[in-house]
Design brief:
2 domains, mainly beta, 8% helix, Immunoglobulin-like, 4 helices, 355 residues, 6-stranded mixed beta sheet, 23 strands, elongated, single chain
């Protein structure tokens, strides 16, 4: 790994730290313009600084850097947004010791070398490699008082660098601890560790309906149906609270749900299957958090029991029989010679189908 540059005097380092503590708080009001809670970067970066102290939270050169105000439920909205497709990162991270760390392209012009923008590119396994630069904004804002420091953070090594390093985001949004998978480099302050940060995952939705077949000759329409769901990645402590919408294909259902909780959150709602004919109705639950959306479907069909010929009369046998156009009664064929006399066109019903 690189060795820290020791040509800066201890006096200068102490001055810079004190200065940053002042200037960082003076720009808090700017944060409301610079960032928002829709950003999907979460967790913490760690920079031990010039002393090289491990990430025990005791060193004050860089220390902990928050990727999102939701980490601490702070009053100022900020965050880093990481696109799910190839593109530029954006937004701001925050440190009590060094102030704002920018990933915005507009703040990164004039970087020391290569492509300045903080970018991510994904491979065929959906593993993202982060390249380019970030910048500690309090240092260039200090002007001549920065003592020649620039505040640049290099996010990935390039050919010719003495060691390899970089930040990679796994397909599940996590970052694995390692020199080539979680480390960026600052010439002034050394290694910045990304391993305790992550990208907020999109919601995962499961949906079912009970009953999913309604025999209207047994229970006339309209009839109550229970729609049940299981949703993950809606943990408010990780910024993942989900806004959900339950809609039906016939337009009779349109409900908003807020789903919030750690792990898998289960819930249900009673809806009314209307007296609207024989077509199946598809219910879709779509949940959205700051990183995207997930959805799933359940299909409910109204039908009739098929009938068999017995002693010249059609009798029930727990299968499908066609509805009349009103959707509330079933056709019948009371006189029969064979079971074929009792058979009508089957409905296109099926079990609950995942999205």
């Amino acid at each position: 790994m690189y060795k820290m540059k020791n040509k800066k005097s201890s006096k200068k380092k102490i001055f810079l730290t004190l200065f940053v503590l002042i200037i960082s708080f003076s720009v808090v009001s700017v944060a409301k313009i610079k960032a928002g809670t829709t950003d999907n970067g979460m967790g913490w970066l760690w920079g031990p600084g010039a002393s090289g102290t491990s990430n025990d939270g005791t060193n004050t050169n860089v220390g902990w850097v928050s990727m999102n105000n939701l980490n601490t439920n702070g009053p100022v909205s900020y965050g880093v947004d990481i696109p799910k497709a190839n593109g530029n990162l954006s937004g701001y991270a925050w440190s009590e010791n060094i102030g704002w760390v920018s990933f915005n392209q507009s703040d990164l012009t004039g970087c020391p070398s290569g492509t300045c923008a903080a970018q991510i590119s994904y491979d065929q396994n959906n593993v993202g490699t982060v390249t380019g630069w970030a910048r500690i904004m309090s240092i260039p804002q200090a002007g001549s008082d920065a003592g020649g420091w620039q505040g640049w953070i290099k996010l990935h090594s390039v050919a010719g660098d003495p060691v390899s390093y970089g930040v990679q985001i796994n397909s599940d949004g996590t970052i694995t601890d390692g020199q080539t998978t979680s480390y960026a480099w600052s010439d002034e302050l050394g290694w910045i560790d990304f391993s305790q940060s992550f990208v907020m995952p999109s919601p995962v939705v499961q949906l079912s309906a009970t009953p999913n077949i309604i025999y209207v000759d047994q229970t006339p329409l309209p009839q109550s149906v229970t729609v049940s769901w299981q949703v993950t990645n809606c943990d408010p402590t990780k910024g993942e609270k989900c806004s959900c919408q339950l809609v039906s294909s016939d337009g009779t259902t349109n409900k908003s749900e807020t789903i919030s909780g750690s792990g898998t959150v289960s819930g249900s709602d009673n809806i009314v299957f209307p007296n609207s004919g024989t077509d199946p109705i598809t219910y879709t639950l779509t949940c959205t958090n700051a990183n995207g959306s997930g959805n799933n479907k359940a299909i409910v069909t109204a039908g009739c029991d098929r009938q068999l010929c017995s002693a010249g009369q059609c009798t029930k046998n727990n299968s499908n029989f066609v509805l009349t156009t009103t959707g509330s009664t079933c056709t019948s064929s009371p006189q029969c010679t064979t079971s074929a006399d009792c058979t009508s066109t089957n409905l296109d019903w099926r079990e609950v189908s995942p999205n």
